[in-house]
Amino acid sequence: MLPTITVDDQKCTDPLSCRKCLLVCPTRVLGVGTKVGPQKFKEIDPSQFIVAGVRFERCTVCLDCVNVCPKNAIQVSL
Ligand code: SF4
Ligand code: SF4
């Protein structure tokens, strides 16, 4: 069974500056996307970026991302 990973974008408001969860995950499960999709030749406001689970099958539920997040924005469960 794959884990459920949720990131509250109301709490995580500037993932590009923080990136702690992305860096700590040993199996690179998490990724950064945008709320607006690809914007060709347009600058995207930093507040539009979001962290999300991408490679769920690699998640070992170690909870390192949950523990490192300064905003308490991540939940991981089986
Ligand atoms: S629980 Fe562990 S393996 Fe899963 S996304 Fe978080 S840091 Fe990565
Ligand atoms: S550690 Fe928390 S606040 Fe930082 S980028 Fe990840 S989800 Fe956002």
Description:
There is one protein chain. The protein is of the alpha+beta class and 78 residues long. It has a single domain, classed as 2-Layer Sandwich (Alpha-Beta Plaits), CATH 3.30.70.20. Helix content is 18%, strand content 23%. The protein has a two-stranded antiparallel ribbon with strand order 1-4. The chain is globular and about 40 Å long. The model has no long low-confidence stretch (mean pLDDT 94). It binds iron/sulfur cluster (2 copies). Residues 7, 12, 15, 18-21, 51, 68-71, 73-74 line the site of one iron/sulfur cluster.
Radius of gyration: 13 Å
Strand order of the largest sheet: 1-4
**Percent helix:** 10-25%
Unreliable runs: none
Query: What is the name of the CATH topology?
Result: Alpha-Beta Plaits
Mean pLDDT across the residues is: 94
* Count of distinct structural domains: 1
| Number of helical stretches of at least 4 residues | 3
Query: Termini separation (Å)?
Result: 7 Å
**Distinct ligand kinds:** iron/sulfur cluster
Q: What is the second-level CATH architecture?
A: 2-Layer Sandwich
Total beta strands: 4
User: Briefly, what CATH class?
Assistant: Alpha Beta
Largest sheet: 2 strands, antiparallel
Global geometry: globular
